[in-house]
């Protein structure tokens, strides 16, 4: 952001400007260049400094959270990211012929560990072209990773390269006059699995291999895949216009074709923008079905830096879906959440409960913008309701958890006047007491609401009276005996 953007933000969204200032002043960012971090960050090596440079150039959003990861995990994930970024750059390059692209994609996993390998054949306008030109720095550092890390990265790159090559070949052999669209939602899921779901799998395996997460995290393939699909589908939804302008078609025809469109470019036709919004709604609905799986995955994580690394992009994805939903601008330009809002989310995404509430809040924002004219209206409401249900089931909002000291926590219901569910719970307690009394006295319990006036049972009165008589009798005998003795 430039000075002008900060100036505008100060007057239009002062709270977000304050968040930016607080983050800049108080956030204790990890300095990978510090002497104490060199053993883990590899900053003393020129090749690793080049890798950190490319991480900053290729991903402003991921670079910050990657650097915050504990120990050598930051360097490992940096290398994983650059390996997959190089693969993705080749796949996205529309200037490369299929004859060149196929062997590159299918053997890229071998290039990762081939010393000195570089590639300068990318198109001049490819934004990450320079990464491949200087890829020898990546291969040099890849060979310095621990074998268990390197094997995971090579394996995931192998699987991803094959999947990308298959889809790229299908597009290459199709009729140039007829765009090669993804047809079904299942095909869309498969593509997203190759380019993002496998990333989630690789990350889970690396987290477990590092010892910072439990071994079973590596086995959560479905949840790991859903984490990747949530982020990828959100990016595909947001980047609609940019991708279409560059003749990259990722939206499945099963979704947008249902509204009478023959070509994906027709969605931004001013005369058919309403139908375009219905297609956008369908894409939002498809992305939302991965939200609860993402929440299930996050509750498994125990390391704070790993949790932050996974939670922050997930929350950003929900915020982006809420921003893009029913937003006509998505059909005409790239839409992003404001940086001040992003910083607020970074500071708020510290534990599963807060993240669940953020998911819930953005689900409510989507629900609030839904319109009954949308053919997906009911399904959108259900999808948002599932997120709300998950959050309420795991972290009931009418229960307050507060800490009065460093280790003492208090759990209490909220003020009944602020939540009807508390009054319902209290009323149920009264009814339960009434039912128990009716069972106890055979239906002769006092009227509803008068439980506190329950009569004292005669058995209890008789027991108490008998006990008093026995006590007086024993006392009298003791006094009589003492008098006789003396």
Automatic annotation (TrEMBL):
It holds the Pfam family SQS_PSY. Pathway: Terpene metabolism; lanosterol biosynthesis; lanosterol from farnesyl diphosphate: step 1/3. Its EC number is 2.5.1.21. It comes from the Eukaryota. Keywords: Lipid biosynthesis, Lipid metabolism, Membrane, Steroid biosynthesis, Steroid metabolism, Sterol biosynthesis, Sterol metabolism, Transferase, Transmembrane, Transmembrane helix. Its cofactor is Mg(2+). One of its GO terms (molecular function) is D-glucose transmembrane transporter activity. It is found in: Membrane. One of its GO terms (cellular component) is endoplasmic reticulum membrane. CDD domains: Trans_IPPS_HH. It catalyses: 2 (2E,6E)-farnesyl diphosphate + NADH + H(+) = squalene + 2 diphosphate + NAD(+); 2 (2E,6E)-farnesyl diphosphate + NADPH + H(+) = squalene + 2 diphosphate + NADP(+). PROSITE patterns: SQUALEN_PHYTOEN_SYN_1, SQUALEN_PHYTOEN_SYN_2. One of its GO terms (biological process) is farnesyl diphosphate metabolic process. The chain crosses the membrane at residues 306-326, 460-483. NCBIfam families: squal_synth. Catalyzes the condensation of 2 farnesyl pyrophosphate (FPP) moieties to form squalene. Belongs to the phytoene/squalene synthase family. This is Squalene synthase.
């Amino acid at each position: 952001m430039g000075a002008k953007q900060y100036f505008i933000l100060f007057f239009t969204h002062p709270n977000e400007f304050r968040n930016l200032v607080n983050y800049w002043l108080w956030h204790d960012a990890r300095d990978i260049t510090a002497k104490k971090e060199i053993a883990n960050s590899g900053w003393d090596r020129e090749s690793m400094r080049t890798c950190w440079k490319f991480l900053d150039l290729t991903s402003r959003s991921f670079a910050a959270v990657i650097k915050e990861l504990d120990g050598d995990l930051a360097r490992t994930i940096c290398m994983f990211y650059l390996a997959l970024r190089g693969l993705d750059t080749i796949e996205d390059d529309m200037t490369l012929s299929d004859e060149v692209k196929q062997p590159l994609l299918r053997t890229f996993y071998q290039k990762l560990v081939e010393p000195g390998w570089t590639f300068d054949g990318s198109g001049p306008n490819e934004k990450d072209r320079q990464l491949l030109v200087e890829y020898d720095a990546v291969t040099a550092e890849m060979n310095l990773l621990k074998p268990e890390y390197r094997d995971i990265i090579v394996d995931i790159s192998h699987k991803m390269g094959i999947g990308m090559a298959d889809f790229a070949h299908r597009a290459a052999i199709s009729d140039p006059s007829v765009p090669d669209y993804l047809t079904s939602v299942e095909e869309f899921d498969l593509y997203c699995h190759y380019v993002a779901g496998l990333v989630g799998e690789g990350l889970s395996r690396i987290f477990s291999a590092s010892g910072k997460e439990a071994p079973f995290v590596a086995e959560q393939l479905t949840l790991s895949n859903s984490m990747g699909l949530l982020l990828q589908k959100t990016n595909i939804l947001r980047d609609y216009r940019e991708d279409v302008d560059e003749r990259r078609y990722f939206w499945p025809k099963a979704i947008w074709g249902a509204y009478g469109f023959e070509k994906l470019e027709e969605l931004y036709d001013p005369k058919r923008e309403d139908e375009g919004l219905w297609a956008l709604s369908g894409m939002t609905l498809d992305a939302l079905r991965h939200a609860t799986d993402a929440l299930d995955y996050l509750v498994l994580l125990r390391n704070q830096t790993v949790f932050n690394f996974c939670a922050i992009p997930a929350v950003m994805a929900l915020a982006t879906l809420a921003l893009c939903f029913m937003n006509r601008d998505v059909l005409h330009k790239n839409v992003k959440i404001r940086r001040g809002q992003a910083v607020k989310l970074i500071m708020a995404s510290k534990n599963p409960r807060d993240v669940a509430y953020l998911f819930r809040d953005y689900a409510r924002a989507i629900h609030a913008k839904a319109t009954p004219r949308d053919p997906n209206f009911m399904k959108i409401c259900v999808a948002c309701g599932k997120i709300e249900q998950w959050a309420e089931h795991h972290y009931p909002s009418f229960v307050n958890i507060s800490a009065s000291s460093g280790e003492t926590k208090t759990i209490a219901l909220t003020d009944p006047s602020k939540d009807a569910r508390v009054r319902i719970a209290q009323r149920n307690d009264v009814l339960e007491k009434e039912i128990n009394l009716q069972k106890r006295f055979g239906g002769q319990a006092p009227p509803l609401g008068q439980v506190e006036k329950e009569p004292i049972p005669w058995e209890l009165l008789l027991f108490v009276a008998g006990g008093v008589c026995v006590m007086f009798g024993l006392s009298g005998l003791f006094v009589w005996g003492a008098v006789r003795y003396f």
